[in-house]
From TrEMBL:
The keyword Oxidoreductase applies. Keywords: Oxidoreductase. This is Dehydrogenase. It comes from Actinoplanes lobatus. GO terms for molecular function: oxidoreductase activity. The lineage of its organism: Bacteria, Bacillati, Actinomycetota, Actinomycetes, Micromonosporales. Belongs to the LDH2/MDH2 oxidoreductase family.
Length: 350
């Protein structure tokens, strides 16, 4: 039997989580930004990165791992490139700023590339590329973090479950949105399987020493998606983010750096202006035509729906925006405890 859930109106969920972060000492603007990213994930059905993350974010803020009042600073190395030092800001704050800056630069220079260093838990990476796509640009993002995933031939965690996202605007359609990790399963998903009492899909997770397991109670880390392919992608994302901005994580974590185990993440966000590559006005319709062509191909079986990346999430978001966002009862209970501690009113739920 599936774990029980409560149904929360989307607007009220956003307002509630914003209030929790504000009560925890985050500025109203930053609290609203964090809430927007988490609510976006909940709306799209990415529950592992949605409301279920709120208690963890509050822990990060309470412990000081995430900075309640960060001072973001930007250093430019060329008109189209900049490095944003996040000062341990929660990821939604740092990466939203980086996405907006990348889009701003792309509109002037054809491309904007923003490296981000020293942020804490980037959240649903697809939010940032989608934000760029909403501006009529192509968004691309990579993230590298603390080693928490296996690597072929290594005992224990070696690399990070580094995600990748690409968003392409398509007039009359939800943007094409690729949002994936280099792992076979997200850590948050492992927790969801544990809470639901379900076995994990084979080949997605391992025990602390790297032994594959389907038991969510024994699983301590994900396995790379596609084996060497996911592992290799994670490694190069570390090179393209952490090493590129002068803040290596992998070598620091596995070396003798006393700060090597301090929680942090780095990112690279790119925005491309289609007009810089040719006929900008023709690009959107051509993307839409490509998606329509894909959806018009012969289905593999009767009743099979052909979808492009991001289409399913957009459909779920529309339904949840109208009907409410389902939140696991366990998560809702944790949010109620946090609300009582912080003196925040809890919205009514079904």
């Amino acid at each position: 039997m599936p774990a029980p859930k409560v149904l929360v109106p989307a607007d009220e969920l956003g307002t509630f989580t914003t209030s929790l972060f504000t009560a925890a000492g985050v500025s109203p603007a930053n609290a609203a930004t964090i809430s927007a990213v988490l609510t976006w994930a909940s709306l799209r059905g990415v529950d592992s990165h949605g409301a279920s993350r709120v208690p963890r974010y509050l822990e990060l803020l309470d412990s000081g791992e995430a900075n309640r009042d960060p001072s973001l600073s930007v250093g430019s190395t060329s008109p189209a490139v900049a490095v944003l030092d996040a000062d341990r800001a929660p990821g939604p704050v740092a990466l939203t700023a980086a996405a907006d800056l990348a889009a701003e630069k792309a509109k002037i220079n054809g491309i904007g590339a923003i490296g981000v260093r020293r942020t804490v838990h980037t959240g649903a990476i697809g939010y940032y590329t989608s934000r760029i796509a909403e501006a009529g640009l192509v968004g691309i993002a990579f993230v590298a973090g603390m080693p928490n995933m296996a690597y072929p031939g290594v005992r224990g965690a070696a690399v990070a479950t580094s995600p990748l996202s690409i968003a392409v605007p398509a007039p009359g359609h939800a943007p094409a949105l690729l949002d994936m990790a280099t792992a076979g399963i997200a850590l948050g998903k492992i927790a969801q399987f544990r809470n639901a009492g379900k076995e994990l899909p084979p080949g997605t997770a391992a025990t602390a020493d790297g032994t594959p397991t389907t038991d969510p109670n024994l699983a301590k880390m994900p396995l790379p998606l596609g084996g060497v392919k996911g592992a290799g992608m994670s490694l190069v994302f570390e090179l393209l983010t952490s090493v590129l901005v002068g803040a290596p994580i992998l070598s620091s974590f596995h070396g003798d750096d006393p700060q090597g185990r301090v929680h942090r993440q780095n990112a690279l966000i790119l925005a491309l202006d289609p007009a810089a590559f040719g006929d900008g006005d023709a690009f959107g319709p051509a993307v839409a035509s490509t998606l329509d062509t894909l959806k018009g191909l012969t289905p593999a079986g009767e009743g099979t729906e052909i979808r492009y990346p991001g289409e399913g999430g957009a459909s779920v978001a529309a339904k949840r925006a109208a009907d409410g966002v389902p939140v696991a009862a366990k998560v809702w209970s944790e949010l109620q405890v946090a609300a009582e501690k912080l003196g925040v009113a809890v919205p009514a739920v079904v």
